[in-house]
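Please, does this match?
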Amino acid sequence: MQYCGDAAVRTRLLEAAEPVLSGLADQMGGLEGGLLLADREANIVRRWVADPALRSLLDRINSDVGFNVGEDSIGTNGVGTVIESGTAVQISGPEHLALALSRFTCVGVPVLHPVTRRLEGIITLSCRAEAGNPLLTPLMTSTARDIERRLLDQASVRERRLLDAYVFATSAWRGPVAVVGRDLLIAGPQVTELLGDVDQATLWEYVRSAAVGSRDVPGGFAPERFGIVRCKPVENERAVIGAVVEFDLERRGPRERSGAGAAPVASAAIPLAMPGRSTALAATVSRTTRLVVNGAPIVVVGEPGVGKYTLATAALTAAGVADDRRAIVDAAESAVDPAALVEALGSALDGDPSALLIRHLEAAGPEAAAAAAAFLERRSVDPGLPQVIATLTPADPYGDPVSPGLRRLVDTLGASMVTVPPLRERREDIGEAAAARLTALRGPSATIAPAALRTLMRAPWPGNLRQLDGVVRAAVERAPAKEIRLEDLPQELQVHATRRDLSAIEELEYRAIVDALARHGGNKQAAAQAVGLSRSTLYRKLRAYRIDADRQYF
């Protein structure tokens, strides 16, 4: 590791992180783990290690304040890999590239600015390799959210005013939106990609002029290229501090290309189909879009209802594949007769599509999957295959998503795996997803009351977006007014309205119980064994956390 001297970490990040990480370190006494805080350049700026033996091990590999742990210098690790991937990672033992790190498990999570959603720093938990546990990732993710909430509390009046304007616009305006300030941009992943090569100062000059009614456009800026529909000023003490910008991605002008016939660029913006701005969703959308635009075959994996098919079709749209150039085969319709899947694939390919989309791949039995693999192997030689995208719901969301019976078929496709995270792992997306569905059902003037929104964000959502969609639909039918209130939500969700905010350790325990119940279909005895609790203790925890296993997981 390279020593860079004491890192000049941003004061606000350190002030926000120190009490949270100090408190967590105090609670981790028996884990023999240490905590690191690094800046966005992968420089370690603070370390919390109580165990002398672990501190000695970390000292030997220079995992200490002032050292740089970027992936380019030491390979995969709990700081540099987070910066490269943009999402939480857990790296255990030999998964580290450097041999010196192989005795550790490292769990790293990004800390994002609560307003701009840009990377502020990374928090990492390091422990002995044998002490690693999948539950450490949700613990550290919850800790990062606590730090982000403290960053939000520290935000200036100006930043809060701009954030409030963005939150309101995402639910009240029809199209994708951004808030632009002099040195600040708040936007979802699709708008961020769209504006990726635009100079911030030029964008601000255009937006500020348009928001106050001026027709002067800065040189070199073409608003029609970006499909900008309207700009509304955001004021603070009678001064324009920013503007809300609405985009119509269907109306934007042609993208610049390197020449006639150039291949689609990997940065194509995905259509508005997966509302949300969490790091996990942004990384999934970005990777899916990049693979599909570049023509790679993929398998989109995820729990029921997470939006696998929606993401796949949206990525094809981003790649410029028209609806009439797509062939769709549903493996679930051919589950009874193995020959039926091969017949359906043959019929679909006879139409010479640009893309073949196979839904519910998990429904194909071993015989059907083997027959389909053999057919596609022959077809790939002559006349060749179009781009193939498949969706797959694993039987065990915690194991290998590809069952042995499907392995040959997936290997034949040569597909990359893309996992859509469940809604419970990206709670910051729940509000936007609910608002988007409400707008589609009742128009842009419809809103969700704060108490109802808090309840939605606290619920576990085992059915993911499909369940959320059903709840919003039912609430719309119940609600006489334009606003959905707490009493319009189902009774089994209203119990979450009064649930207190949980500490990091309690959040970890809550997630473990919820995941165990989901994994075992609501079977309390099996769930208790999975998390190492007696049944009587589990029942006490269910009451304390207001979890209704019978209603929420069967």
